[in-house]
């Protein structure tokens, strides 16, 4: 008996940014695909992964906003985490197998002194259980096969690493750090320096660049909205570019720029700018030392309206 082919949900053009509070148990891509399905969006992306164990702020981009996802990949981030002292695991988090256990003799003063040593610019060895590539293959694939790949330490900046509370051997901490920082490696290093081992048991991202968790929505609440209300919750395409200065263009400048050509900029310092014509976002342009504005990344909506 032949099966009737299932009809695929039709996709449509949706442009904007959704500040999602990702739940634990879902990968970043799973969360993206769920939100994309709810919006029936043709194109979507995210701005940096959160492990399934982690929850918190995950900005999702749709349509033309996907062109600016890289902005937040490079941004500083803040996390609240729970670290269990006395138990080291293969992955430095709760998903790994226990490697060893030790009694915990560290006082609060010992912990504070060790946190202080882990602040500032430090070197961190990326974990084997990570998505970093070696010869085109993710490190976690080697790890699952029992193969250890030598990793070079990387310099990261820990802006703050503070103890929020302690219950027995479980620590609640807040970490503000640069891109490329692995909080579970911080947990493992903290345990090693205290001589008892440690691993991460919970992780929640509360801030990325200028954006905070309190401006986000959970996946459950987003799904509970009426279908026609979901798109209205999206921030505009230029929402991730608030750190860039605004450069207004006149009609002729806008026409030339959106056709891929450089124009003379009347104002603006050297560097990237958000460019607009009569309040309409056209994309990002770059002013060089000669005062010439060149297109850096333009949005199709602006191109269509200026053609």
Descriptive report:
The chain is of the alpha+beta class. Helix content is 22%, strand content 35%. It has nine helices and 19 strands. A hairpin with a 2-residue loop joins strand 10 (154-167) and strand 11 (170-177). The radius of gyration is 23 Å and the shape is globular. 34% of the residues are buried. The model has no long low-confidence stretch (mean pLDDT 90).
Top CATH class of the largest domain = Alpha Beta
Give the DSSP E fraction (strand runs of 2 or more residues): 35-45%
Shape verdict: globular
Helix/strand order: EHEEHEEEHEEEHEEHEEEHHEHEEEEH
- Return Rg in Å: 23 Å
Largest sheet: 10 strands, mixed
Helices, by number, come to: 9
DSSP strand tally:
19
CATH architectural designation of the largest domain: 2-Layer Sandwich
CA distance, first residue to last residue: 53 Å
Give the mean pLDDT.
90
Percentage of residues assigned to helices: 10-25%
Determine the structural class based on helices, strands and strand pairing. Answer: alpha+beta
Q: What's the SSE blueprint?
A:
Blueprint: E1 16-22, H1 28-39, E2 44-46, E3 54-62, H2 70-73, E4 77-85, E5 87-89, E6 98-101, H3 108-117, E7 120-124, E8 133-134, E9 137-138, H4 139-144, E10 154-167, E11 170-177, H5 183-194, E12 198-208, E13 211-212, E14 217-218, H6 219-224, H7 227-230, E15 246-248, H8 251-257, E16 263-264, E17 271-277, E18 280-287, E19 292-298, H9 300-306
């Amino acid at each position: 008996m032949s099966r009737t082919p299932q009809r695929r949900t039709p996709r449509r053009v949706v442009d904007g940014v959704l500040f999602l509070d990702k739940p634990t148990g879902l990968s970043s891509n799973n969360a993206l695909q769920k939100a994309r399905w709810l919006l029936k969006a043709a194109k979507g992306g995210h701005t940096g992964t959160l492990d399934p164990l982690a929850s918190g702020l995950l900005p999702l981009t749709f349509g033309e906003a996907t062109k600016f996802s890289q902005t937040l990949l490079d941004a500083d981030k803040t996390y609240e985490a729970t670290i269990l002292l006395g138990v080291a695991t293969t992955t430095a988090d709760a998903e790994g197998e226990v490697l060893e256990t030790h009694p915990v003799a560290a006082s609060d003063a010992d912990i504070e002194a060790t946190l202080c040593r882990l602040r500032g610019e430090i070197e961190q060895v990326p974990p084997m259980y990570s998505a970093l590539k070696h010869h085109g293959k993710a490190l976690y694939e080697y790890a699952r096969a029992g193969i250890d790949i030598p990793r070079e330490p990387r310099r990261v900046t820990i802006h703050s690493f503070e103890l929020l509370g302690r219950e027995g051997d479980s620590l609640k901490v807040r970490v503000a750090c640069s891109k490329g920082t692995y909080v579970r490696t911080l947990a493992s290093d903290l345990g090693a320096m205290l001589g008892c081992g440690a691993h991460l048991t919970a992780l929640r991202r509360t801030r990325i660049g200028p954006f905070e968790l309190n401006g986000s929505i959970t996946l459950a609440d987003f799904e509970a909205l009426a279908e026609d209300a979901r798109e209205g919750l999206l921030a505009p395409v230029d929402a991730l570019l608030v750190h860039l200065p605004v450069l207004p263009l006149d009609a002729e400048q806008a026409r030339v720029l959106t056709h891929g050509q450089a124009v003379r900029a009347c104002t603006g310092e050297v560097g990237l700018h958000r460019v607009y014509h009569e309040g309409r976002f056209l994309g990002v342009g770059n002013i060089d030392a000669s005062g010439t504005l060149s297109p850096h990344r333009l949005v199709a909506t602006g191109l269509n309206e200026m053609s």
